[in-house]
Amino acid sequence: MTLTTDHSRATADGAHTHGTVPAGSRAERKTSFDLADIPVPSGREEEWRFSPVARLQPLFADDLTGDGVAVTVDAAPEVVVETVGRDDERLGRAGKPGDRAAVTAWNAVREATVVTVPAEAVATGATSVRIDGTSKDATASHLLVRAERHSEAVVVIDHRGDALLNQTVEILVEDGAHLTVVSVQDWADGAVHASSHRASIGRDAKLKHVVVTFGGDVVRVTPDATFTAEGGEVEMVGLYFADADQHQEHRLFVDHAVPQCKSRVTYKGALQGASAHTVWVGDVLIQADAEGTDTYELNRNLVLTDGARADSVPNLEIETGEIAGAGHASATGRFDDEQLFYLMARGIPEIDARRLVVRGFFAELIDEIGVESVEERLLASIEAELEKSMSVITGAPAQ
Amino acid sequence: MSTLEIRDLHVSVDTKEGAKPILRGVDLTINSGETHAIMGPNGSGKSTLASALAGHPKYEVTSGTVTLDGEDVLAMSVDERARAGLFLAMQYPVEVPGVSVANFLRTAKTAIDGDAPSLRHWAKEVRGAMENLRIDSSFAERSVNEGFSGGEKKRHEILQMELFKPGFAILDETDSGLDVDALRVVSEGVNRAKESTDVGVLLITHYTRILRYIKPDYVHVFVDGKIAEEGGPELAERLEEEGYDRFLPAGASASA
């Protein structure tokens, strides 16, 4: 099933959406810092309709008092790391929470980790933020990554262990800064993780935002990116690999509120095993003032075995006709038996042929990440995932 | 010397309406070094023979045998057939995104030979074969068949034939869709393979055009799933003049 649309010549007609029509415009979606404004979801709400709400329930409580994760930062020498109280004035500037998980995290958290790249500093190495799950007490955490004007840095957030974590990651990319943020969800089985990433991108600033999800029971990441001044650019890249019974959900929102900004979204996922479920929702809103916007989003899913389900919903709302380009593409396909036949007809055994195809599916995306240590780890993780499906194949009777 | 022997082969294809018989008793013997042309009108089952020999899962052999020097080819998996020395140059080569031509060629060569080719020697051999087929060196880094033109795909198939050195090569309408220049380049590649190895060739084609460049020792006319007539190269010349009309039921007309 493939859906490809080019909106570069679209005329302004108010709201314009594809896929399943959401409940109203993204612009009208309730956002708030106040718990009372956003109730616990039933699962019927637009933003929760694909989610296993029951499994996420522990993260919706009014007070998440747990202390279930340990945060360790290994910073580049130019980068400043602080732990601050929840009332620090730098917090809460990258946009308001947009769903119950996000507003719960905001209200529950008592302190935050602040990673600052000082103005005009160019970080000489990647800054690593390790988040290790230590217990299953439902926990809230808050991280602010702030790249001050004309700074450059790479920050890798790495989640491991077992936890029930409701997290906020705020990303401020100030004027002229170039920031790469990578979030790796490599949880142990059983982890439940909701994460609201809220990014604000200033004048001529550039954010590369990378999400990699492999482990955990339920992982739901909701990156929002908002442009606050002209000339901003965001590149959002995602890669996920879901096994039996895993739910991996990535809901993105790019808000083109101002003119002359560019966004590119590329998410790819593979699924294998019974009840493996992935969800990708990409909302892009081009507001009436956002002339000269250039946006494209793509999601591809590769279903490796029976019993897995991939949902993919691109939504594009265009409120001005004066844009440079707008399009989206979504394709979910089964493993291509013709590719397998072609490779096997060249003597390549089935297992190696499958490996080639899956590696090939992700190859382009991995090259785009641009952080070598992450790329290497990703390739290793993909190999490990493939080992699981290979053992199923080798155990199966020959054709 | 090797022999590929096809005896009373019956093959059905899976369709939505169920299994549909296509091949109805094919007998054919090919020895090393021989070139056999299989010609016939559209829908006569030529390409089905090619796919069935390679082991495409869509085709089911309902009776008959295929042996390679006495070994039962039909009992082999697709990759085992290739490693036993069968090569199919496909009519519609498949795109494999993200897998570079260089990586693909090396992986296949390693699988077929049982061990990896020596790096320096292999690189040189690939480069030389690509030059001969007028394939730009940049193709080595491109994804297999992705964005290739029809002619580029066919040249890439023959590149593999030259590099993998199969015992028997089945060329499934390799000539279709090629302009004269590309046809000549591709034919030269096949002839090089014939000279440098003792490959037996099964050349499946709708047109006689390619037979001006690749000389067949035998010509078989395929009609309605079996061989209707056999002869030497002179049979191809006769087909060139008369077309397939005399093989078809009265009133039917073969497409050119």
Automatic annotation (TrEMBL), chain B:
Keywords: ATP-binding, Nucleotide-binding. SUPFAM superfamilies: P-loop containing nucleoside triphosphate hydrolases. It comes from the Bacteria. The keyword Nucleotide-binding applies. Coiled coil: none annotated. Residues 4-249 form the ABC transporter domain. It holds the Pfam family ABC_tran. SMART domains: AAA. NCBIfam families: sufC. Belongs to the ABC transporter superfamily. Ycf16 family. PANTHER family: ABC TRANSPORTER I FAMILY MEMBER 6, CHLOROPLASTIC. This is Fe-S cluster assembly ATPase SufC. The gene is sufC.
